[in-house]
């Protein structure tokens, strides 16, 4: 049997916000230290930034970077991270039982973003775990106020004459999670988020603020949390956050391959909750979604290790250094498809994280940097997933999963560039053993040739890229796709991520 759908330029989901291709740098493990920052490395520049990693970040096409956490931010003292490096204190990082040296801080982060390129935007989080309103506005004043006050002049004295101009701010991190330092109830957090937002807006009404939603759809407080928080903060924030991580559990690969079913329902349920609160408040405003942590993460493995061997406050330990397989990359591609399919409401998303820590880019201290399997779907989606998402309503053969019941073998989306008229189809075949024939009807689309069919798949679904074999898995050209009289016919390889570009 065959999978099929129709693409029509008149039927669209919405425009892709460039911020959908964000990522995340947390002070965690080796994301910062020996990841992006390693003075003394042969490829380090004068600021200690690894230029080999900077190049890969540019190739990845990251548009926004969330910083400095994550769980780390709930103990973050921003003032420790600025000023002369030699005078910065060493602190216990409670979230990751590590020692934070503060050799890399806010100013270094902004300089790092500038080196990525003019399009790279900061998404700064404030600490609403151990801190609150006063410190959030102090950080904002230090970062964004031009000059002439104690805090803004302090920034200038530290060598940053130009204000950082940070528009996008997270009001804390995962405050619904009992693991979070300073964890709060929805009522407590909703009030704090609202008051912090109000104070920050007294400095700058144009800021874009993200309230914490749920740490996953499985949280016991899910949906009630969002409703309570937004009842307090609806008029004061622009986005609510979503976080989700997926992994294969007990060898159930079929359910793992269907992870995007959960991601899509999570998005739809948050949209429904936000709009319910909006309706109750008789508000015309629509809250947008910031999916600011998403990925495949073998979290159970990490938790078991952390319980067995609690860390003794090391500096930049090897933590959460998952090596991603071809199977992981196919699931990951499917998560990207889920985000694109909801581009009308998901206007910010951050892949957690960027380097070494559950990351598309890996490094060895003193050694090379390389691309994980997941690097490729992200880079391709960021490069070609720009424009307007077309409404894809596919018919597809299905398969049975323990976690989600009957699930379509095909997961797909398509993005059209309105300027050039080119169309890119992103598609995943979840079938582990058989190719999936796909037929796409293209009425009204001015395309006549296949520019490229790129495939990520492998005879070994567990193949990975490693230090020893960094290019073991790379995308290859697909064979046999045909575009004739407005119909695309292609066979999607078993367990594959596909990018089909039409012009
Ligand atoms: O990305 C790793 C961690 O996952 C983050 O610190 C936290 O926000 C989430 O639980």
Automatic annotation (TrEMBL):
<dbReference type="InterPro" id="IPR010720">
    <property type="entry name" value="Alpha-L-AF_C"/>
</dbReference>
<comment type="subunit">
    <text>Homohexamer; trimer of dimers.</text>
</comment>
<dbReference type="InterPro" id="IPR013780">
    <property type="entry name" value="Glyco_hydro_b"/>
</dbReference>
<keyword id="KW-0378">Hydrolase</keyword>
<dbReference type="GO" id="GO:0046373">
    <property type="term" value="P:L-arabinose metabolic process"/>
</dbReference>
<dbReference type="InterPro" id="IPR017853">
    <property type="entry name" value="GH"/>
</dbReference>
<protein>
    <recommendedName>
        <fullName>non-reducing end alpha-L-arabinofuranosidase</fullName>
        <ecNumber>3.2.1.55</ecNumber>
    </recommendedName>
</protein>
<dbReference type="Pfam" id="PF22848">
    <property type="entry name" value="ASD1_dom"/>
</dbReference>
<feature type="domain" description="Alpha-L-arabinofuranosidase C-terminal">
    <location>
        <begin position="292"/>
        <end position="496"/>
    </location>
</feature>
<comment type="similarity">
    <text>Belongs to the glycosyl hydrolase 51 family.</text>
</comment>
<keyword id="KW-0119">Carbohydrate metabolism</keyword>
<dbReference type="GO" id="GO:0000272">
    <property type="term" value="P:polysaccharide catabolic process"/>
</dbReference>
<dbReference type="InterPro" id="IPR055235">
    <property type="entry name" value="ASD1_cat"/>
</dbReference>
<dbReference type="Pfam" id="PF06964">
    <property type="entry name" value="Alpha-L-AF_C"/>
</dbReference>
<keyword id="KW-0326">Glycosidase</keyword>
<dbReference type="GO" id="GO:0046556">
    <property type="term" value="F:alpha-L-arabinofuranosidase activity"/>
</dbReference>
């Amino acid at each position: 049997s065959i999978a099929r759908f129709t693409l029509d330029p008149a039927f669209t989901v919405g425009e892709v916000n460039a911020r959908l291709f964000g990522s995340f740098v947390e002070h965690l493990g080796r994301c910062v230290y020996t990841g992006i920052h390693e003075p003394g490395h042969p490829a380090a520049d004068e600021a200690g930034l690894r230029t080999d990693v900077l190049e890969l970040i540019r190739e990845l096409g990251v548009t926004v970077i969330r910083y400095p956490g994550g769980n780390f931010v709930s103990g973050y003292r921003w003032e420790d991270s600025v000023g002369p490096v030699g005078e910065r204190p060493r602190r216990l990082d409670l979230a990751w039982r590590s020692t934070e040296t503060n050799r890399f801080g806010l100013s270094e982060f902004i300089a790092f973003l500038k080196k990525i390129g003019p399009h790279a935007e900061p998404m700064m989080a404030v600490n609403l775990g151990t801190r609150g309103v006063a410190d959030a506005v102090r950080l904002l004043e230090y970062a964004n106020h031009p000059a002439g006050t104690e805090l803004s002049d302090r920034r200038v004295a530290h060598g940053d004459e130009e204000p950082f101009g940070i528009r996008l701010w997270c009001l804390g991190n995962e405050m619904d999670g009992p693991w979070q330092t300073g964890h709060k109830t929805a009522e407590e957090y909703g009030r704090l988020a609202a008051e912090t937002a109000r104070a920050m807006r007294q400095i700058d009404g144009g800021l874009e603020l993200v309230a914490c939603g749920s740490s996953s759809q499985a949280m016991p407080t899910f949906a009630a949390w969002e409703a309570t928080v937004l009842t307090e903060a609806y008029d004061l924030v622009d986005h609510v956050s979503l976080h989700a991580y997926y992994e294969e559990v007990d060898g159930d690969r079929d359910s793992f391959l269907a992870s995007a079913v959960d991601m899509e329902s999570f998005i739809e349920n948050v949209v429904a909750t936000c709009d319910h609160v909006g309706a109750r408040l008789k508000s015309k405003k629509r809250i947008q979604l910031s999916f600011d942590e998403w990925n495949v993460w073998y979290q159970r493995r990490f938790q078991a290790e952390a319980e067995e061997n609690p860390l003794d406050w090391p500096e930049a330990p090897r933590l959460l250094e998952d090596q991603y397989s071809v199977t992981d990359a196919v699931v990951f591609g499917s998560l990207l498809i889920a985000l694109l399919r909801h581009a009308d409401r998901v206007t910010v998303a951050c892949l957690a994280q960027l380097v070494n820590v559950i990351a598309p880019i890996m490094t060895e201290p003193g050694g090379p940097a390389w691309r994980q399997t997941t690097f490729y779907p992200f880079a391709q989606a960021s490069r070609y997933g720009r424009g307007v998402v077309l409404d894809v309503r596919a018919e597809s053969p299905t398969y049975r999963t323990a976690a989600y019941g009957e699930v379509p073998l095909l997961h797909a989306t398509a993005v059209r560039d309105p300027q050039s008229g080119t169309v890119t189809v992103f598609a995943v075949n979840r079938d582990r053993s058989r190719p999936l024939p796909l037929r796409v009807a293209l009425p009204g689309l001015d395309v006549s040739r296949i520019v490229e069919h790129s495939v990520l798949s492998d005879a070994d679904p567990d193949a990975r890229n490693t230090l020893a074999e960094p290019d073991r898995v790379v995308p290859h050209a697909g064979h046999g796709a045909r575009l004739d009289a407005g119909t695309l016919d292609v066979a999607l390889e078993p367990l594959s991520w596909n990018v089909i570009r039409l012009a």
